[in-house]
Amino acid sequence: MSLVLIVEDNEKNMKLVRDILQAKGYETMEAVNAEDGIKMALERVPDLVLMDIQLPGMNGMEALKVLRAEPATSQVPVIAITASVMTQDRQQIMDTGFNGFIEKPINLKDFLAAVQATIRPA
Predict the structure, then answer these.
(1) Which CATH number, 3.40.640.10, 3.40.350.10, 3.40.50.2300, 3.40.50.300, labels domain 3-118?
(2) CB burial of residue 52 (10 Å; 0-12, 13-18, 19+)
(3) pLDDT tens, N- to C-terminus, the chain (122 residues)
(4) What span, in angstroms and rounded, lies between the C-alpha atoms of 32 and 6?
């Protein structure tokens, strides 16, 4: 079973993503801020991290840099989830080193396709 870490501060978005993934057979871990997400990823290395960009405290782009700098998580795929859909925002996110990009509000079909393309189906 593939393990997905969800880093999302919005309760409704967290529930939606968690419910979708669990219904498809993925195991999930959840963090509401980047600091907790990093700690959880280092304790139990996930197969994928879904990272909100706009988080309280450290943002998702800063968190990605920390994950990439740690040997245990440097190769873990990280997909950005954000409502920032302007072309320059998307380019900046991808330039930071994310493996993919999912727009909010989440499109169920596109979301699952992105997850499944990044890790093998559970």
Answers:
(1) 3.40.50.2300
(2) buried
(3) 899 999 999 999 999 999 999 999 999 999 999 999 999 999 999 999 999 999 999 999 999 999 999 999 999 999 999 887 688 888 898 899 999 999 999 999 999 999 999 985 44
(4) 8
Cα 88 to Cα 93, 95, 106, 115: the distances in Å are: 9, 10, 20, 23
pTM above 0.85, yes or no: yes
Residue 68 is which amino acid?
R
Q: Which of 3, 6, 12 is nearest to 36 (CA)?
A: 6
